[in-house]
Amino acid sequence: MKAIIFAGGVGTRLWPLSRRKSPKQFEKVIGDKSTLQLAVERLQPYFKWEDIFVATHERYVSIVSKQLPKLLPMNIIGEPESRDVGPAVGLATSILYKKYANEPVVIIWSDHLVGKPELFQQLLLTCNRATQKTKNKIIFISQKPRFASQNLGWIKYGKVAFKENNFNFYTFESFHYRPDINRAKEFLQDGSYTWNLGYFVTTLSFLWSMYQKHQPDIFRGLKEIYNSVGSSQFKAVVSKVYPKFPKVSFDSGILENIDSDNALVISEDLKWSDIGAWEALKEALQTSPDKNVSRGKVLVTDCRDSLVYNYSDQLVVTIDLDGFIVINTDDVVLICHKHSVPKIKKLVEKLAESKNDHLV
Question: How would you classify residue 331: left for phi > 0, otherwise alpha for psi between -120 and 50, otherwise beta?
Fold first, then answer.
């Protein structure tokens, strides 16, 4: 079984920690290791280094190599340009398909937390066996919902198709992308909906066939890349073909077109968290909603439900803050209410068009 970890995003919602030069997946958001390093740790010892691949932007290849010195250089897939997740998964598929066409592969992301790594490992091993038995299927790995999230996609699943190693494999019903709060509450109460993590297990041959069937324009370029794999022309072909791909999300381009008979769902409590934004990081680390979460040299007085992260040597003092986010770096201080975090992305876009572009 092969694993592809996607680590190419910029992560503007975690600004000012996450920057163009070093996005969130390479920063020490939790403890002394980056979330990319933690993602690799969750795969071991069941995945050997030669079975692990990292897909990222070309500008971050050196960072990946530095953080994962045991990763084979040939297993780092550099995208010459950001073209969204649809082309990114397609590029990785075209490269690995050349050698591992019928081998199972798991797709995961580099900026998540999994609080139950042992359960996650057992789940992957079980999916590996199930994929070898069930051809032409994709298995969605999902998290049992903890609350009515509006920021995540949801999957509706049906009856138990079969059981393997005490894991239930459910039939797939439908996707629901970022519902409003009322629908999210309905999903939570219904009991047959689960959070979509963007994690799945399938075979490379099935992925390849899905691009051929549902994204013929992209597939023509992927076929050209596939034909160049292993040749001296490979990098030149990727540099020529990849930037021409349309920006298509993997969900809308591939997943939403898959026949329900070709999909299965596993829903488990993995203690998974997407820490793509500051309020999500707080939710992942807090012991209760009223508790504060802090890091570095901070003094928090009469505050509740706040996150205070200090990445500088100076002391940060907060008084009487309720539901605030305070981030201090060497060159930027961010202070906002946790409900205002979605505005950070638009702020960063404006900074990129100003004299403060160097801070993006």
Answer: alpha
